[in-house]
Amino acid sequence: MTTCNFYIDGAWCEPLQPGTPHPIINPATEQSVGTVAMGGALDADRAVMAARRAFDAYSQTTLAYRTEMLHKLQGIFERRYTEMAQAISTEMGAPWDLAYDSQAECGPGHIKATLEAAKDYPFEVKSGKGDLLCEAIGVCVLITPWNWPMNQVVAKLAPALLAGCTVVLKPSEFAPLSAKLVGEYMDEAGYAPGVFNMVYGDGPVVGAALSAHPEVDLVSFTGSTGAGIAVAKAAADTVKRVVQELGGKSPNIIFADCDVDASVARGVKRCMNNTGQSCNAPTRMLIEKSVYAQAVAAATKAGANVRVIQPTEKGDGIGPLAMKRQFETVNRFIDIGMHCGARLVVGGPGRPDGFDAGYFVKPTIFADVTNDMPIARQEIFGPVLCLIPFEDEEDAIRIANDTPFGLAAYLSTNDKVKARRVAKRLRAGNVSVNASGNEYCNPFGGYKQSGNGREWGRFGLQDFLEYKIINGL
């Protein structure tokens, strides 16, 4: 049984304003493995003021010093790598291979990308007759979700630290074990008191208090679009910078001139990865009508072959959803899909055969979906795929862009000229052609209600910097 407390001003501590402890539930067993201390507005203030006191000294350290410290943090991540994979697998049910190869790897991966970006970043350059300086923006609040915990935490933390900012991390109470390890890593690395602070608490109380705090200069938030709107409103009165990476309902366009069976199988696997709990998951598969029947058959075969496995099991497969709330939401959407005119070809509501406990759901695929159905409009955040036919290239682009989101898009075609033409017209921040993936050095973020700003590499570093021009020197 683990207790997750706060880390403020260089020390582990209990909340000043304790709420009801939040249970840490293993989603594969539905059994408690510990508790999370939940705080209030006083705890948010204590963490922010510790970061404020530390800012002047830390922001004036040299880039060489901050680089050295980040290298040290990277080394600790790598030495304690297995601990992190185990924590993520336990708290959110990620199967072992996914937790080890992908989830935990995001920690050192983002640190390396940040260090690489800083090598030639123009922190101080001539601009006309003046000197242009890039300086730390100040005290930064990092609010992170549970679905890719190290990806979201370290994609924010590494550039903030390198820029010279001090931070307050509010991780999800549903992913506290991995965040606790981050606190331990920071403490072991020897960062000065107040440079890194961590508090747990719910969004409406602690999240709102952090977002509205007048001593906070930036809020970097990853989560649902609804929660992102609340953060932006709370931050508005103090005119602080707000960076958001929010939801998605990403299209995956399958043109008739590609290898349809292979492209569809890849699309199914990518949608189901992490049990569908990825904001950039390709959950709408748009299929050219001339190959629609073939694609539905290929998706049905691929979906039936998706294994549901225990988090402790190695190999390909999907684990449980991360929490009871998500289990109920996904099953509700599956039920909606079955009653709104879509054709169920794989899966359905309830647990898979052989699973009597845990938040396991069946990989589910609907065919004959129209883009106005709730299952095509709303982010389900589970292993649920919608198959939508389209007439031609123009129709595919229209359907793909007909969404309030714009985080990611995918397309498969053997025509490179068409691929570029279509990709340029898709209103999304990340477009993947023929199963290509993003790299840590490239920007991650979206259009429309998928957020604002960009993370990863030099693009994420920019969010934590202010620009100052000094004339006359």
TrEMBL record:
It comes from the Bacteria. It catalyses: 4-(hydroxymethyl)benzenesulfonate + NAD(+) = 4-formylbenzenesulfonate + NADH + H(+). It holds the Pfam family Aldedh. It is an enzyme of class 1 (oxidoreductase). Its EC number is 1.1.1.257. Keywords: Oxidoreductase. GO terms for molecular function: 4-(hydroxymethyl)benzenesulfonate dehydrogenase activity; oxidoreductase activity, acting on the aldehyde or oxo group of donors, NAD or NADP as acceptor. SUPFAM superfamilies: ALDH-like. CDD domains: ALDH_CddD_SSP0762. InterPro entries: Ald_DH/histidinol_DH (IPR016161), Ald_DH_C (IPR016163), Ald_DH_N (IPR016162), Aldehyde_DH_dom (IPR015590). Residues 20-469 form the Aldehyde dehydrogenase domain. Belongs to the aldehyde dehydrogenase family. PANTHER family: ALDEHYDE DEHYDROGENASE, ALDEHYDE DEHYDROGENASE-RELATED. Homodimer. This is 4-(hydroxymethyl)benzenesulfonate dehydrogenase. It comes from Rhodoferax lacus.
